[in-house]
């Protein structure tokens, strides 16, 4: 089986567009549909025809182009069962633990409530790919709109259990801000310091910071390092639960 071809591009002000293409079957998947024109431009640039949209959650900056793309291409739209009524053009819904096959590849659904109540991630284990949208960012996590921090921490634990070499594609280019914030709660982390310098360089040149990996996030993402003694000491949360440390870090980011 040939590796999936992946095209990453900018949409809206800071969204990532991501297309996956299987050259053997012609299957082409858009991860969410933030904006029609950049997606069509990317398809034309690569000579691909859209066949599927994998929707992660209902926010407008992730579903805005669902109906227009479906009208143009007749593509099949997948999305979260818990948000089915809010996903435009939805054809098939999936819940936590569901699995299906597409282009000879397994696609597993991981429910990650937190950012929204029904947010899901798409995990392709045979390709070591995770599409995390607004749950997990490079050195960050999504803002908590519909579920409490304890729920998002549980979602993070699911993602932390994936293999370290899993490549993670996320929904927004927030990495520079996330890196700068992470240093305020984990200032003695040498790996984080090095990564922050690399991100500053990438963004100064206008380059993307996507993808990351689960292993790299476990080293540098403070939301995955809530058990770390130095972070807990810095926050004065030495005796708190992991979920309480997670919540404190997210609150501080909200006010950063």
Question: What attributes characterize this protein structure?
Answer:
23% strand; alpha/beta
What would your notes on this structure say?
The structure is a single chain. With 256 residues, the protein is α/β, with parallel strands linked by helices. The chain is 34% helix and 23% strand. The chain has helices at residues 36-46, 60-63, 66-73, 149-160, 175-185, 190-204, 214-220, 229-235, 242-254; strands at residues 5-11, 15-21, 28-31, 52-54, 76-80, 92-94, 99-102, 105-111, 120-124, 129-133, 136-137, 140-141, 167-170, 212-213. It has a 6-stranded mixed beta sheet, with helices on one face. A hairpin with a 3-residue loop joins strand 1 and strand 2 (15-21). It is globular, with a radius of gyration of 18 Å. The mean pLDDT is 98.
Describe, in short, the structure shown.
34% of the residues lie in helices and 23% in strands. It has 256 residues and is an alpha/beta fold.
Number-wise, the strands total 14
Unreliable parts: none
The amount of helix comes to 25-40%
How can the largest sheet be summarized?
A: 6 strands, mixed
Class per helix and strand makeup: alpha/beta
Multimeric organization: single chain
Which percent band covers the strand fraction? 15-25%
Give the H and E element order: EEEHEHHEEEEEEEEHEHHEHHH
Q: DSSP helix count? A: 9
Radius of gyration from the CA trace?
18 Å
List the helices and strands and how they pair.
Layout: E1 5-11, E2 15-21, E3 28-31, H1 36-46, E4 52-54, H2 60-63, H3 66-73, E5 76-80, E6 92-94, E7 99-102, E8 105-111, E9 120-124, E10 129-133, E11 136-137, E12 140-141, H4 149-160, E13 167-170, H5 175-185, H6 190-204, E14 212-213, H7 214-220, H8 229-235, H9 242-254
Parallel strand pairs: 3-4, 4-5, 5-6, 10-13
Antiparallel strand pairs: 1-2, 2-3, 7-8, 8-9, 9-10, 11-12, 13-14
């Amino acid at each position: 089986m040939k590796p999936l071809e992946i095209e990453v591009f900018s949409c809206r002000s800071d969204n990532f567009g991501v297309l996956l293409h299987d050259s053997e079957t012609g299957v082409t998947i858009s991860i969410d549909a933030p904006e029609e024109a950049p997606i069509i431009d990317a398809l034309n640039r690569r000579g691909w025809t859209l066949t599927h949209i994998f929707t992660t959650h209902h926010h407008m900056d992730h579903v805005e182009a669902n109906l227009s793309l479906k009208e143009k291409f007749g593509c099949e739209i997948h999305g979260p069962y818990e948000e089915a009524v809010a996903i435009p053009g939805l054809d098939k819904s999936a819940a936590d633990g569901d699995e299906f096959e597409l282009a000879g590849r397994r696609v597993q659904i991981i429910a990650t409530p937190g950012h929204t109540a029904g947010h899901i991630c798409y995990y392709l284990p045979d390709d070591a790919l995770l599409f995390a949208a607004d749950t997990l960012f490079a050195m960050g996590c999504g803002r908590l709109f519909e579920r409490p921090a304890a729920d998002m921490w549980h979602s993070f634990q699911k993602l932390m259990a994936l293999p370290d070499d899993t490549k993670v594609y996320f929904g927004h280019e927030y990495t520079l801000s996330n890196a700068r914030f992470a240093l305020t709660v984990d200032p003695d982390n040498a790996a984080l310091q090095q990564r922050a310098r690399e991100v500053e360089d990438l963004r100064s040149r206008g380059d993307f910071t996507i993808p990351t990996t689960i292993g790299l996030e476990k080293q540098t993402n403070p939301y995955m390092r809530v058990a770390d003694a130095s972070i807990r000491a810095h926050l004065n949360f030495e005796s708190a639960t992991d979920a309480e440390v997670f919540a404190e870090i997210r609150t501080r980011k909200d006010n950063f």
